[in-house]
């Protein structure tokens, strides 16, 4: 029996877009087919990367430091968790990945996209058994007007350094996601997140089925 190929799926969107509330159902969908499912997140997913997450979300720093820390966390995560899981044939469901860096550090903070591209190639290149630069097979992009996301976030838990940003920052982040999506349209599925939870889930499930991933 040939081993199943790993499947790397990421969820993206601005804060308040509601992406994380669909991970349970996605996991159940793939588990029902008998597959191993690994759920993880960025920044994070390993003890070191979770430590770096705490720094990135809470400590003041400039955009280069922020970029280096999210990519350092990513490197540890890719090498120790994501690449081995894919090599085993697992489905990896990752809440945010490099598109978030292009959107938040690139779009939101205005950091150099060329430098981010270089770091992306270094950090995601040459993992054992994974050719070239590792990229998700599918990115579910939960797209929501920044004003609506801000309303959803208002009054929620104590905001971190990103959630505390003004709506203009999230407009730039949203534009950053739109740029990444148009540069790699085959990888992205745009989910209209300005809808009921049931409707958003229906879009997610339809996208996964349409791509023949189940
Ligand atoms: P989360 O709350 O969805 O887990 O995301 C944590 C925050 O980190 C979120 O505001 C986006 C931000 N972030 C970046 O700025 N750059 C990145 O590369 C990643 C993965 C997240």
Characterize the structure shown.
- This protein is an alpha/beta fold.
- Helix content is 51%, strand content 16%.
- The protein has helices at residues 23-31, 47-58, 63-88, 98-108, 113-124, 146-153, 167-183, 197-210; strands at 7-12, 37-41, 91-95, 125-127, 130-133, 138-143, 188-192.
- Strand 4 and strand 5 (130-133) form a beta hairpin.
- It is globular.
- The structure holds thymidine-5'-phosphate.
- Thymidine-5'-phosphate (TMP) binds next to helix 4.
Bound molecule kinds, no repeats: thymidine-5'-phosphate
Tell me, rounded to a whole number, the average pLDDT.
95
Which structural category fits the helices and strands? Answer: alpha/beta
Provide a count of the helices: 8
Helix content: 40-55%
Strand segment count: 7
Strand order, biggest sheet? Answer: 2-3-1-6-7
How many angstroms separate the termini?
18 Å
Percent in strands: 15-25%
The radius of gyration over CA amounts to 17 Å
